[in-house]
Each structure stands twice: as C-alpha cells, then as structure tokens.
Amino acid sequence: MTLLAVDDLEMRFGERLIQTGVSFKVERGTIFAIMGGSGCGKSTLLKHLVGLLPPAQGSVTYNGVDYWGADEAGQASLRTGFGMLFQSAALWSSMTILENVCLPLEQQGKLDEAQREARAREVLEWVDLGKFAEFYPSDLSGGMKKRAGLARAIGTEPPLLFLDEPSAGLDPISSKKLDNLVLDIRSRTGCAVVFVSHELPSLFAIADDGIFLDADSKTPIAHGSPSALRDTSTHRTVRAFLAREEPPPPAAQNGASPVPSATMPSSTLATP
Ligand SMILES: Nc1ncnc2c1ncn2[C@@H]1O[C@H](COP(=O)(O)OP(=O)(O)O)[C@@H](O)[C@H]1O
Ligand SMILES: [Mg+2]
C-alpha cells in the first residue's frame, strides 16, 4: 500500500531550478533511499516532503491526501504521520535528552505526563541511551546525538520516518549500529523510512528502493534499490557513485553509455 506518492515535483529557490520531474512512491514498511552527489537537492527534497518548502510544481500525497492542497489543519494532521531526523540531529540544547524526546509526545497530546515519560524512556532504551536520559545534548557524542534524534523522531510511532544523512560523520561502527537500529525500528513499528545517505554500506544494507538525483541534468536519472543500480545501471554518473567507477568527464555527464569497469583505474574514486 502506498504511503507517500511524489508526482512530477519541481523544486526551485526563486528562479534557480534545483530538481524537476521527481516522481516516486514509498510503500508501507519499506526503506527508500534518496541518492546523489553533494548539492543535487536531497535535503531540499526532504524539506518539500515534510512540509517545510512548497513545491514549484507537482504534488506530495500522503495516503491519498495531497499535502499542499490541504488547509492548515489538514497539513498539521498529516504531519503527525511522520517523524524527521535532521542532518544536524537538531536537539534543543537547553533540554535534557528525556525532555527532547518527550516534546513531540506533548505536541501529539495523546498521553499524560507519566505516560509520556514512560514512552520516552522506552524509546531511549531502544536506541541504547537509557542511561543518558538526564544528560544534555552537549554531553553526548555525535553518534549518541543522532540516536537521541532518532528516539525523538520515533516516539509517537509515526508510520513514516525521514532521516537526513543519519550516519554522516560517524565512525564505521557507530554507523553500522545506526543502520541496524533503523532496521530494528522498522521491524518493531512497521514504519516506512525515507533517508538520504552518502554512505554506500548503509545504502546497500538497508534500502529496498530509491531514486538517484543528478545535479547536472537537475532531474532523477535512476530509480531502484541501490544494490540493483550498482549492479545493473548503465548510467555513468550512477555507477561512479555506487560502484565507485571513474566519473564521466564534465562534458559528457548526461551520457548513459556503459563503460567496462576493466578499463577504469580502480584507484580513482568518485567523490559523491
Ligand atoms: N535556502 C536555500 N536558498 C537557496 N539555495 C539553497 C537553499 N538551500 C539549499 N540551496 C541550494 O540548493 C542546492 C541543493 O542543496 P541541498 O538540498 O542541501 O543538497 P544536498 O542535500 O543534495 O547536498 C544547493 O546548490 C544549495 O546551495
Ligand atoms: Mg543534504
């Protein structure tokens, strides 16, 4: 069943086109990756999906309801259906971790104070921060902050989670731990996850499906699971990113001609 449908979305900052012709669907319980090089518009796309930026064109539909066609109350009600972990984790520095995690539960208004605290402590246990509930964000490492941000995003058990570069800047062990946590949360709650990542191991380990945004043509150039795209895509930009092959020369960036990997120097890595 389709939870989120994006249809022919166009994103602009003023006159400047970021991406156009973005269409995809996210099914219940699946993990969907937004891929592409730096600056292609991945974070901007997430902001369009969570209601922070209106599209220049096209639609974003949750369970069949057009977000940008809904009135303010309708949009607020749709927003209760998703949680978001921002690239920076975005915790309130003046609040303890427990208070941060309680905040969306308070806004949701379904539980009393004791129930909210019990729920917040439960999700903090899930992300292995049970002992850090009374700490402040500044007392935590980068990986712990991301996990706290994740706990805050999942407290209300939203059917859809948006994660912007959840493992960026983490060491490989913390990064793998976060991947496992996302899979664990999906199996506990049955939620769908839309995430942005540059980390190839994360992309291959957790994503069922995805879309690849191209910064040069300003449009998606591939659609599918990251591992399938790595193994079968004939687009040079996609292969440069996912299979770490030689990137296309600037003049031929939009070309789709496959290049046998044997002809490429293995030491040259594409910078995503
Ligand atoms: N608020 C903004 N105003 C104008 N341009 C922006 C704004 N936010 C991002 N951009 C530009 O839009 C492009 C896409 O940015 P972003 O979505 O952050 O890329 P990504 O997340 O893929 O690295 C970049 O060129 C960036 O400079
Ligand atoms: Mg970004």
Descriptive notes:
The protein has 2 domains: 1-81 and 164-252 and 264-272, P-loop containing nucleotide triphosphate hydrolases (Rossmann fold, 3-Layer(aba) Sandwich); 84-157, no CATH class. The chain is globular and about 55 Å long. The protein contains 9 helices and 10 strands. It is α/β, with parallel strands linked by helices. Strand 1 (2-13) and strand 2 form a beta hairpin. Helices cover 35% and strands 23% of the residues. Helix 4 (113-126) crosses helix 5 (142-154), helix 6 runs parallel beside helix 7 (200-206) and helix 8 packs across helix 9 (236-242). The chain has a 6-stranded mixed beta sheet, with helices on both faces. The chain has helices spanning 42-49, 72-79, 97-108, 113-126, 142-154, 172-189, 200-206, 226-232, 236-242; strands spanning 2-13, 16-27, 31-35, 57-62, 65-66, 82-85, 160-164, 192-196, 209-214, 219-223. The structure holds adenosine-5'-diphosphate and magnesium ion. The site of adenosine-5'-diphosphate has 10 residues, from helix 1.
In this entry the ligands are:
adenosine-5'-diphosphate, magnesium ion
- Mass-distribution shape: globular
Low-confidence stretches: 252-272
Write down how many β-strands occur, each being a DSSP E stretch of 2 or more residues.
Answer: 10
Give the CATH superfamily of the largest domain.
P-loop containing nucleotide triphosphate hydrolases
CATH topology of the largest domain: Rossmann fold
Short description:
By secondary structure, this protein is an alpha/beta fold.
